Amino acid sequence: MRERGLGFRGGMSEYLCEHGKKARWRKDVWRGVSAFMCAFLLFAVFVVPAASHEKLASEDYNTLQIYGNANEDDTVDMRDVTYIKLVIFGKKPETEFSDANYDGRVSMLDVVQTKLIIVGKEAKLTIVDSADRIVTVKKPVERIVIGTPSWMYDAVWIIGAQDEVVGVTKEAKERFAKMLPGIQDKQSIGSYRDPDFEVILSLEPDIVFGERRYVEGLKDTGIPVITMKFREIEKVDSEFRILAKILGKEERVESFIGWKNGYIDQLKEKTKEIESKVRVYAEWSDVPLCTGSRGSGVHDVIELAGGYNIANDLHGPYPQVSPEWVLDKNPEVIIFPAFADFAPTDLTGYHINSHENAKQFIEEARNRIELNGTDAVKNNRVYVLDGHYTESAVKNFIGAFYCAKWFYPELFKDLKPEEIHREYFEEWLGVPYKGIWAYPLIGG
Prior knowledge:
The protein is of the alpha/beta class. The chain folds into three domains: 90 residues, Dockerin domain (Type 1 dockerin domain, Orthogonal Bundle); 111 residues, Nitrogenase molybdenum iron protein domain (Rossmann fold, 3-Layer(aba) Sandwich), CATH 3.40.50; 166 residues, Nitrogenase molybdenum iron protein domain (Rossmann fold, 3-Layer(aba) Sandwich), CATH 3.40.50. It has 17 helices and 13 strands. The strands form three sheets. It has a five-stranded parallel beta sheet. It has a five-stranded mixed beta sheet with strand order 10-9-11-12-13, with helices on both faces. It has a three-stranded antiparallel beta sheet with strand order 1-3-2, with no helix packed on it.
């Protein structure tokens, strides 16, 4: 069976679609199980390893999931110190994060720990990661290994923590060789799906960012493993802040979040009055008839841009659809998210300097029987957008600006998404803006 890129069968897009199918199968299997048995079995399957803790924290997206954030807002500050004191005196209810030093009780030691967290002098920090695992990290963190998919690399470079990175996947070295300064000098830890744990151990990391295989591969080593997905728009600010707190980069991350959210607010303000939303169909460039519903990044991008995702009500985040379904829904706009290295030929990426591949791809797509009868094809509203700008919550707001221009060219006639994109590269990644990321541009 052929494997490409990150090692997912058929590439990133096919992995996303296969993941969606598996999620649907699991849901069908569990539907007949009682609520009690579901709770019992889920606990048994997903109990966290000894290196972490079993207690799960608040799932409120606006809560910064760091122990010490007693009032459960989006930051750790003196208000949390006050709150913990009120808990001790019986004036406020105890919250999950009141136990700042995570010793099982709320006391004045938690007041001390929270004050240390505020000034960045804590000896350890306990957080809830993106996989709902509670992990304690010793501070300071000076050596990190990144074994996650590509979504996280931008985040680490944005907050200025690249000098602490000692190991990365071979796919990251290849994909970001010119886009992320210094990554080519980092030690390869092997592929994302088949990491070399001996190499990781030789690097003596203080922390490893990775998913389940890293948790299992590094158990009993004493090295904390943290999962950070950077996939969901609602959670990305909290993930950024946790990452920055772990690595001591709070000032830089707040600047980025302010910059990013400033643009997002402008987009939301502009689209909130749209009454008749354009109907949009998204399909992965290398997996025909695989789309994105709720839970996918491309769905978030379409909604943020003021569009209506015709796959909105389908089951699972990455459902497969039929040609008849597409024709029946008759989208007004079609978007093809594309991942470099995963399609038969690269359509987008930092290394692409011509739009010819994307142009040819669109011409061929227009001739597909299930697409050529749609309003999108009839009105020449078919576009290619780099897949990282739909699925990475670090930067998919930029993808939403390209989409907004495509969806409502008159409303956004003065918008130049490529200028926002340029800022992202030059101000936050520290590299020149180049590459093909969206095609065709309107009024560009």
